[in-house]
Amino acid sequence: MEHADPTVAILGIGTAVPDCRIDQEDASQRLCEALEGDPHSIRWAKRIFRQSGVNTRYTCEPDLLAAITGCRYLPQETMEHIPATSERMSIYKRESVPLAFKAASSALYNSNITASDITHLITVSCTGQFLPGLDAVLVHQLGLAPHVNRIPLNFLGCAAGLKAICLGKGIVSRQHEANVLIVCVELCTLHIQPSIEKEALLAASFFGDGASACVIGTADDCHSGLLQLGDEHSVLLPDSAEEMVWEVGDYGFHLYLSPKIPKLLGELIPKEVSRLLHDGEKPDLWAIHPGGRGIIDTMQGIFGLTDEQARYSRHVLLHYGNLSSATLLFVLNEMLQELSQTASGGSSGIAIAFGPGLTAEMIRFHYVPSTRQQEQYSDRAYV
């Protein structure tokens, strides 16, 4: 049967993390030792680390695992030895490329798409910049065509990974022969601040480093276990611009996360999801960006999700922390791997992520075990 529009899907996903792993209990203990003499900050640090929902994270900076007397990212009496932004950007340039390359190579392999067939490259990051950028470097290292259409999405925050997926879906919908490679890399731990302020301690408690990638295109007979992409929705939420702020400072980037964010999302997001679903039934699968334990708790509560439905997001937060824009593809990858292994039938889903603004990005998807079943879903209203 012929259809007016092709079915657009995520054909393959790849993820990568650095070698250095941060144990949450150890990190909390080391921070508290560095805060000796400030019992109030110690109590606050213990509390937020304990309640973060994170057990392990990864970092590209071995210095973060050094003894407290040698770790330049922990609170100190003076700022003399604290890494300046220029040094942090040098580390970013050195460490981001191999992580991005590893994730992208895995996504290409899993999608059965060759590098020469990629028509568009979308690179995503908010934790560092350099020029020529990550997009130009990856063209050479991956062997992409020199005329590939390069689209960098920089400094958009945690929602940017899903924004890139929505952009990729739109490209393939309009250009049926296109293959879009999306690569997200975030080195969040480079911006840990040597501060006793609550905001700095909060950010230090759950952000991690990692890269993720995916290929979006039109499936053929060599593809199976697909995430078919449907309607998308983007919204800039009202009266919330100051609730999440990410600014460049002399000693890395400074992040402010308001404690009101989960409550605000709980009040504002339901009607936006309802618009995306056209007031229809809730899907079975939920890929929620694990921006923090409170965000997952709020989304689970307001949508009446079971622990089973929220487990993908909680598992990623538990083992990797918040990887900013790269995180959502980690969630989708865990979901996809489990569905493929359990020989699950087709299931509908929604992916949702949040970022500064406050902004929310969301998209509907359908898990399709095979291209044969994919044809059965190609006439669904949300495609």
From TrEMBL:
Coiled coil: none annotated. InterPro entries: Chalcone/stilbene_synt_C (IPR012328), Chalcone/stilbene_synt_N (IPR001099), Polyketide_synthase_type-III (IPR011141), Thiolase-like (IPR016039). Residues 7-218 form the Chalcone/stilbene synthase N-terminal domain. The keyword Cell membrane does not apply. Residues 235-368 form the Chalcone/stilbene synthase C-terminal domain. The keyword Transferase applies. Keywords: Transferase. Belongs to the thiolase-like superfamily. Chalcone/stilbene synthases family. This is Type III polyketide synthase. The lineage of its organism: Bacteria, Bacillati, Bacillota, Bacilli, Bacillales.
